[in-house]
């Protein structure tokens, strides 16, 4: 049965990988023109005492990409300016609120106190106060904008470089530019509205250090989170309490106390989804019998760990059945009801909504959380593969979960959630890799379990399975994954050729030259358009997106973006 499940899983994965890869290439070939198709993000531009960053970028690409380079836009450190612009927007929102309030009751002009949260201070006319504050901020914004444009220190060693063709952009994005691989780093640019502009102002070295700190913090958080899991799971195992603390046995055997401890699993199951694999699966299995096996687990060799975990797997089948019903079934039911967003909306509507803009933002349903939903689905794949041979009774509960989730989330994606981006299945290699890991984990744990049973002689027959699974993964990685991490030059050339035939007079430079200007340098709505200087005029070919009329997206785009966000 282990061989049967492994071969079936690999067959389905290969078929799906091939299908998704074809769909991705077809989608990329048929999508309309977008700025990110012609643009790369260049990081770590080396300093030059004789040239500015803008001049250096232009000269470098004119020399090294003479036939394809079109234009570029340097990256400014405009974080302070962004804060001022956001503050001005808040002031305008308050001004709109008090003007509406005054229009409804002109017998009394609205007033406020200028102190903290309006609790104390001088009482002033609210409309006059916010009008003067907006004028003051407008002057500060103008001065800060001029300061950024004229101060070389405000320019970061990064730039968005656009090319005349998709082929030229693909060559630049997917190749090493110089002998030194640490400078002139190039990669595909995200769609303009997917850029997290504040992070572009972070130096490359600082960004790397931040990533290291986050990785270390995540490791320790995961490790120490095992402590409460060990405690709770040990409490959920009555036999473990009785063996570790025998003097509590008379109390535990009391009917009322015993029923309370056994019900602890159900109430704690929904708390173990954050660190899915480590803290839900391995954590629950290893620590679920911690009092019995802690001493052996500490002193045994690493080769004995699969055996220790394998023995624990059948003992935790009932726990995971409870977990699937509480976290999976109830979670899907909660998703269709959306009680939490409903409560949050009413709280915002009561305490925070002052204008129609506030109400529109409060009613925004948001997007489907892929970063949390996908790991949850992966966990159920893992549970199904691990228990398919050991305790098949778990499989009907998982099948019911997937059936419910398909119906509910299909409805939510079509009718409720906004589409934040279209990644063209860029996440699929990660999904595939995690399922492969789940298959290998299930095989190793099965070998550990069988080595303790009468069927220990059959354990060597399973050694071939992980080897075949790893070979299958390497085959898929070499055969299909390049379509997800590289843009084929053949596809780029075909698309460029068709575009030149259909639009021979296309002015691509006007389409690209302002696409990657920082939003604070161009008016994003009517109220700010008069403040943008001529060199930062509004980009052409932009129309409002669905639901959010104040945000812009390229006119030809059918989807909402590449899904790329620079790391924090």
From TrEMBL:
Region annotation (Disordered) ranges: 522-568
Assigned keywords, A-Z: Calcium, Ion channel, Ion transport, Membrane, Transmembrane, Transmembrane helix, Transport
Bias type Acidic residues, positions: 527-537
Biased composition, class Polar residues, residue ranges: 551-560
Residue ranges annotated for the CSC1/OSCA1-like 7TM region domain, each copy included: 263-450
A GO CC annotation given for this chain: plasma membrane
Domain CSC1/OSCA1-like cytosolic, residue spans: 37-199
Molecular function terms, GO-annotated: calcium-activated cation channel activity
Statement: the UniProt record of this protein carries the keyword Ion transport: yes
Ranges in a coiled coil: none
UniProt xrefs under InterPro entries: Csc1-like, CSC1/OSCA1-like_7TM, CSC1/OSCA1-like_cyt
Residues spanning the membrane: 212-232, 272-291, 379-409
Name of the protein: PROTEIN OSCA1
Native organism: Salix viminalis
